[in-house]
Amino acid sequence: MVTTYKHHIGGKWIRSFSGKTFMSINPANKAPVGKFQQGNRQDIDAAVRAATSAFKSWKDVPAPKRGEILLRAAQILRKRKEKFARIVTKEMGKVISEGRGDVQEAIDIFEYMAGEGRRLFGHTTPSELRNKFCMTFRQPLGVVGLITPWNFPIAIPAWKLAPALICGNSVIFKPSSDTPLCATKLVALLIEAGIPSGVLNLVTGSGNDVGMALVKHPSIRGISFTGSRTVGEKIVQYAGLKRVGLELGGKNPIIIMEDADLELAVEGVIWGGFGTTGQRCTAASRVIVHHKVKKQFEKRLLDHIKKLRVGDGIKKTTDVGPLINQKAVEKVHGYTLIGKQEGARLLHGGRFLNKKGFFYEPTVFSDVSPSMRIAQEEIFGPSISIIAVKDIKEAIDVCNRIEYGLSSSIYTNNIQNAFLAIEKIEAGITYVNASTIGSEVHLPFGGVKLTGNGTREAGIEGIYEFSETKTIYVDYSGKLQKAQIDDVMVR
Ligand code: NAD
After folding, report:
1. Which of 438, 28, 65 is closest to 254 using CA atoms?
2. Cα of 231 to ligand 1 centre, how many Å?
3. Which residues make Cβ contacts (< 8 Å) with residue 459, sequence separation at least 6?
4. Are 64 and 120 in contact (CB under 8 A)?
5. What CATH number is given for 252-432 in this structure?
6. What is the pTM of this model?
7. How far apart are alpha carbons 69 and 42 in whole angstroms?
8. How far is the CA of 465 from the centre of ligand 1 (A)?
């Protein structure tokens, strides 16, 4: 028996107006995980009505009280971490240790944003006039729409839900159709923690129907989107004057200089390139190596890759899980064929794995030139390209010759190289002597160039996306004072 899950609208679990459902499956073995409501515009309309009504009282709940609910959610999630991690692995495929990491990130952001309830700082600043007081404070936007991908099915929704709720917004959450069970369980947990009826609404269904209805809805004040560049561009086109936050793709480089600790660099490339089966926005997909150490690096890399065990992520012995679906397998394999056609040298992998699920071999191309498509386009799978360079200047130049700018990394023991990379690499994140992945929730996360539109998630900046600044002037002089008018100011 496959369980059928429902939308959560106005405090109730209800069916979609369409009466239709879709199936979510386990990518490791294609077994059904659950049936979910195939939402449409009517469901979004109902959710917007509920959220608009709930916003009126939610915005007036003191932020520290809102924080108490988030803290409770963190505590419940901590107790159920293993259960949630197994759901992540079952529905999304990542290995169980990473499933736990996905859940831990949600615990961390709930705790962090709970604390933000006692800050939500504005500024005070002197006035240019006497007997006048100036300050700013933060207000919620109103009803916001959250649209999320499948690759961090608990962490990414939590990264958006926590700041949206602590700022006093009410929310309509539309998760990826590849991971609706994770979303449903997370929403149920927040409701259990005490989020009032109508403040948090869940509508599942396709991007074109549910996602677009959310993006176009005139009563929605903000859209926070994480996903592909193609969809991000579409959202900007249809969102009108709403606040839009976009966290899009990446093509993240690791530079390895001739003075690097090569063993450390190899471990970083394996983790960055094949962790989460390469399905992270911060995955390392370009390895830019100093030509003097390229041969040695490649030999060590291959020694490590040969030991990787590909399989069902639920097994403790698995290092690399499946891809998310058949379309992803075809996309990754398509890039293997492109790489070969472009003249890159296939060092390892490049084949489907004949198993029950969506498995693909960890793949490495060498002798890649920076302009090849495999070095320019986001593959979003276990495929890395090695590019040789002669010095740090060329390495940084190759790094930057790309449309994206999310994460980046350099392995070096030379402080000049390290600081040149920190200063010159065009990316939102640069790691020194660590891989391209592993963000912490109290630091801002996001990219430059076509990775987004400048918003940052997490950290103190995470609340900017979900709040407006209000500016206050209090004049206690008891007379008319005019700013910028000289004769009033001069006494
Ligand atoms: P996707 O763009 O296909 O889907 C993301 C979400 O958008 C899903 O919920 C989907 O249903 C919805 N959607 C699809 N079409 C829509 C439309 N027309 N209108 C509104 N919503 C629509 O992305 P994906 O395959 O789920 O995720 C992979 C992508 O996400 C990669 O490009 C990856 O780099 C990116 N990503 C970025 C970050 C980041 O923080 N920068 C983090 C994780 C993933």
Report:
1. 438
2. 7
3. 441, 442, 443, 444, 445
4. no
5. 3.40.309.10
6. 0.97
7. 30
8. 18
**Total number of residues shown for the chain:** 491
Rounded CA separation 107/76 (Å): 9
pLDDT, tens digit (0-9, with 9 covering 90-100), for 137-193: 999 999 999 999 999 999 999 999 999 999 999 999 999 999 999 999 999 999 999
| Pocket perturbation via mutation, ligand 1, pick of 40, 91, 248, 332 by most ligand atoms within 8 A of CB | 248
Q: Is 7-248+452-471 CATH 1.10.10.10?
A: no
For residue 177, which of 100, 116, 92, 291 has the smallest C-alpha distance?
A: 92
Nearest atom (ligand 1) to Cα of 175: 9
- 485 pLDDT tier (thresholds 50, 70, 90): confident
Q: Identify the residues whose C-beta falls under 6 Å from ligand 1.
A: 147-151, 156, 174-177, 207-208, 211-212, 215, 226-228, 231, 234-235, 247-250, 281, 378, 380, 406, 451
Best CA proximity match to 370, nearest among 245, 202, 253, 235: 253
In 3-state terms, what secondary structure has residue 112?
Answer: helix
Beginning with the edge strand found earlier in the chain, give each strand of the sheet holding 383-389 in spatial order: 345-348, 363-366, 383-389, 284-290, 252-256, 409-411, 431-432
Strand ranges of the sheet holding 7-9, from the earlier edge strand across to the other edge: 12-14, 7-9, 200-202, 170-174, 143-147, 222-226, 243-247
Residue written as token pair 């259960």: 83
Residue with tokens 């709720």: 165
Max CA separation in the chain (angstroms): 86
pLDDT tens profile 123-135 = 999 999 999 999 9
Report how far apart, in Å, the C-alpha atoms of 357 and of each of 2, 60, 447 are.
19, 49, 32
Q: Locate the domains of the chain by residue range.
A: 7-248+452-471, 252-432
Do 173 and 159 contact (CB within 8 A), yes or no? no
